[in-house]
Amino acid sequence: xxxxxxxxxxxxxxxxxxxxxxxxxxxxxxxxxxxxxxxxxxxxxxxxxxxxxxxxxxxxxxxxxxxxxxxxxxxxxxxxxxxxxxxxxxxxxxxxxxxxxxxxxxxxxxxxxxxxxxxxxxxxxxxxxxxxxxxxxxxxxxxxxxxxxxxxxxxxxxxxxxxxxxxxxxxxxxxxxxxxxxxxxxxxxxxxxxxxxxxxxxxxxxxxxxxxxxxxxxxxxxxxxxxxxxxxxxxxxxxxxxxxxxxxxxxxxxxxxxxxxxxxxxxxxxxxxxxxxxxxxxxxx
Length: 285
What we know:
This protein is of the alpha/beta class. 42% of the residues lie in helices and 13% in strands.
């Protein structure tokens, strides 16, 4: 297994009825993921609704994950920001709290030039002795990290990985191990020799996604069988994955504005997907 693992789940942040962080549900989710194929979790990433967590909540989740993780589970802490000072602060604190690695997203909204991107990640790299996973997701940041720039960033101490969510740019990168940033890229990344993916669907079909790593001869077959699930859950993440988890009796709770819970049409689509994949036995209506 690679240092951080192959199946890393971008874990949801469960909320209670008052939309406060439900710590027990989060701990229960860690156990569920470990039992069903996940080597590790990414805490407070996009799927974890980091953008609506306070700094205190964000750091408390990292601390909770490190303290309560099942044996053998790695913890990658989301610690990115479009404010370099804040990204450095969060990276320092996540390191102090015992995270195994740092996920650091491209500075969003500001849209810095290449010099600014390099300076940003140089400051983040200097703030930790843990491996850094760059996060390239231009659909959310409005800024792509092309592969030649990724190779430059790989020269920074500790910058060892990239979560690549731009399928058009998917290729090996000198100096970096490439993780699939979208569920539907996992098979291709594994075929290219990458370690695995940072995934969402592994919340509900983690065992099957684990099999894509362990049984390469069946990889294409398994991937094809999950394509409808990727498409269903990938709409307005994390709305639909929380709906699926709640239907399966795994407490995920609601979402904080500006995200709203799935409407009746979306819930029907999610329920049909669960039925199709044989998960309906435990699905709640």
